[in-house]
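Attaching the record inline, Q. Sequence:
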Amino acid sequence: MKTALIVGAGPAGLMAADVLSAAGVAVTVADAMPSVGRKFLMAGKSGLNLTKVSGDFAAAYGAVDGKLLRAVDGFGPQDVIEWANALGQPTFVGSTGRVFPEVMKASPLLRAWMTRLGQNGVEVRTRWRASGISNSAIQFETPDGPLSQGADVVVLAMGGASWRRLGSDGAWAQWLLVESAGFQPANVGFQVDWSPHMRDHFSAPVKGTRLAAGPLVSRGDWVISERGIEGGGIYSVSSAVRDGAELVVDFCPDLSESEVQNRLAKPRGKASLSNHLRKRLGLDPVKIALLNEFGRPFPSDLTALIKKLPVRHQGPRPIDEAISVAGGVPFDALTDQFMLHQMPGIFCAGEMLDWEAPTGGYLLTACFATGRAAALGALAYLGDQAAAEMSKGA
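Structure, as predicted:
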């Protein structure tokens, strides 16, 4: 029986194990943490967003290598839904097209998945931290001391460099012997050194705005935190902001500039400016506070600020706080089957590859899809090896 070693027990690694074990390969999954799927479980704490039903799903990945797009095309949103259903976890589609398990949580899905993997003979080794590679064998630090583990094929799915406490620390970049693109935070909040008057608004949500940075636009909600700004709306434009684009917010995205100007021009009498903004434009205290924070000294006409308020910040929060990362193993280091050119029989998948995507199901879908693509590449490699061995013996 052919053997496979999967390094990393996140969505990409477990999907690779699923595909390989279903094909009759003896699979061992090794992970540095005490239990599997820790980031997967964390992602489901507020509702596990598996994928998104979207007319142009692939466009969310931007200008990325065709290998990723082909992988996602081979295992897209409908495939994710059918996969979850097959594990006894039916899904539903939310109002924005996002797909969730009916139970919303990640743990029932992960348990069902691990049960199926166990039935297929997959062996799991936890607290095995990969520390190097030699002659196609992976070196591990384990509770029983160092060991070297080889297999007919190896799939590396060791994650990026965010959420270190959940197992993704990017340490593999020091020993993989592949020149990796430097890690950058993705889907990340931004540091803001707030004035004292903003303290009353920490943890307050900001709803009904339009955020824009470079070519990216978001209508999602976001949050004011003690450290800055974060949340889905911010994450959707964070890659452009990280790369230097100005972040601006439109507090009245459903009104034109002339409509805003006409409403503001109405006499306010003895009303304060705050009450005038509330009555004429529906701005709540949080939006007014942000307008004061970033807009003073006010011009005589506030229209331009209300429609395009520049948000001052001190850069992205640390990479360890980011939901995901850009950077990692470049796609040109891989064959079309996700195998490393320099290391035959060793494949890569998941967030350790150099790609990024917004939240909203795109991250998980691509992890599933690249794990599957790497596993299919490994099966093809095993088949080629078997054919070569048969031809030698003929």
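The first helix runs from residue 11 to 22. The CA atoms of residues 58 and 330 lie 19 Å apart.

More tomorrow.
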